[in-house]
Amino acid sequence: MKKLFFTLVAMMAMASGMYAQGKFEVKDFGTFKMHTYFTNDPMGDTAFIIETEHGLVTLDEPLMKDNFEEFNKYMKDLHKPVDYHIINFHEGGNPTNATVRAEGMTKFMSEGMYDNMMKGFQQSFGDKMLDRPIGKTTEIRFGETLNNDGVTYKFEKAPAGGFPAATIIIGGKVRATHSVPAKAHINGRSGDAAAIEASMKDAEAALVSGCELFIGSHGGYATKDVVEFQADYYKKVLELAKQEKDADAFVTALKKAYPGLAGEDGLTQAAANLYK
To answer: Are 47 and 168 in the same domain?
Structure first.
């Protein structure tokens, strides 16, 4: 958690000036549409709108005012009321409106590491950043389901090692997590063998979830083939960590197993975590 915080602070320090305009992509699942908004902000955040016949639900709205204005205008152009604002991994948007969060997240986001992180963002970005949400919050317990206009939102506990938020299954078709699955190497924040095993089990759970699309508050979305890759990749990482005598040998073996795979720069630190 501390490593994540300092990495985000470093990203803030590197960010300066304005950022590129965001973009939207839409996928139709019949009973609902998923609108994905790529903010192009300094944190690489992604926000979502779930559109049904009669209304809208938002998920992890943008943190930056310019992005939120663009997001809000797009939402208004859909000409439907917003039924719920779900805050899962990221605070942002609609600061005075009622929100929904996973159990425990209201307290978690108001103190400690997360609170310090958000205060750091406010210091770095100033008036470019939205005020933090202050509206009434309803918490959904893990294992429970929110129903809205014929679409279900099942709140499952996210894997250990990250924010204590939820993995949300939307309409049985979309699985929402913190970071979108990707065909890339583990990085320096990936943790020890137990954390890698948790990631592998989460990928395996995603594959049997019945979902077609896998979204994240960072990275947008991915399809099932990417999750299949991740499950196999994490398994290979754990095998090599047992087989190779030290971190250098592990890095060499993993590069050989996946030549040219993105993210090689972070393998040295990732291996150090595995071989502590």
So the answer is: yes
CA–CA separation, 265 and 188 (whole Å):
9
What does the pLDDT look like over 161-213, one tens digit per residue? Answer: 667 789 999 999 999 998 888 999 998 778 789 989 989 999 999 999 999 99
User: CB 264: neighbour CB atoms within 10 A?
Assistant: 15
* Tokens 């994240």 -> residue: 216
**How many independent structural domains does the chain possess?**
2
From 203, 269, 191, select the one nearest 234 (Cα to Cα). 203
- Give CA–CA dist 40/49, Å, rounded: 17
In the listed set 121, 155, 179, which residue is the last one of a domain according to the structure?
A: 179
Reported as half-sphere exposure (CB side, CA atoms, 13 A), residue 265 has a value of 1
> Which residue's entry shows tokens 């000036």?
17
Model pLDDT for residues 56-92, shown as the tens digit of each residue: 999 999 988 899 999 999 999 999 999 999 998 888 7
3-state secondary structure of 181: coil
- Give the C-alpha separation, 254 to 233, whole Å: 10
Sheet of 56-59, strands arranged across? 23-28, 33-38, 46-51, 56-59, 82-86, 99-102, 137-140
